[in-house]
Known about the structure:
Two copies of one chain form a homodimer. With about 100 residues, chain A is an alpha+beta fold.
Amino acid sequence: xxxxxxxxxxxxxxxxxxxxxxxxxxxxxxxxxxxxxxxxxxxxxxxxxxxxxxxxxxxxxxxxxxxxxxxxxxxxxxxxxxxxxxxxxxxxxxxxxxx
Amino acid sequence: xxxxxxxxxxxxxxxxxxxxxxxxxxxxxxxxxxxxxxxxxxxxxxxxxxxxxxxxxxxxxxxxxxxxxxxxxxxxxxxxxxxxxxxxxxxxxxxxxxx
DNA sequence: TATACATATGAACATAATTACATATATAAT
DNA sequence: ATTATATATGTAATTATGTTCATATGTATA
Lengths: 99, 99
């Protein structure tokens, strides 16, 4: 595996995007299905504005996508592969925890 | 998959640890074998002190381990699984890049 | 023990990231 | 068109992070 500057940058951006607890929780919650900003804000106990900013970051990292539905906007994971990666890390830390 | 506070914290710490380009590069370099701080500092074009600080973070996240060898200390990946995770993301962003 | 070499640490500085607040934009329904 | 609802954005303040510099610690060998 070669590590050129673009791959390095994109990979660290992806890692950074899911390194923030709120954003990682968003990814987890969206793995069960699409949700709007307000529902996410309630579940995360954060302001709508904060979650909206976080979603923008996740969208820029191509981790989530969204679609309009009536007057709200539904967010979902952009790619199943993302959840595989996250789930792999969840499993990893869970194993390490039980040592 | 359940997301309790401990898993969430450990997982985001792991993601955060490899989200910094220098640290991600360290993981990449160590995937080929063990290296000491000075060699890493040269390859990364950073001061020895900066790399030492980064290694401390990687060690706290249980991503690298080290052993004494003469008067130097050799660092290596704490776990093969770590590189699998990183490599999976490298592959992912490489695929996304070529869209 | 004195010296040289390798690594680690603490403090200070600069930069970046996150949040809250206020407000703007967009859409649907009356 | 007006109102209500949902979401996005700009800005400012707080907090976190990474780097450098100086120095301390550790270790091997003369």
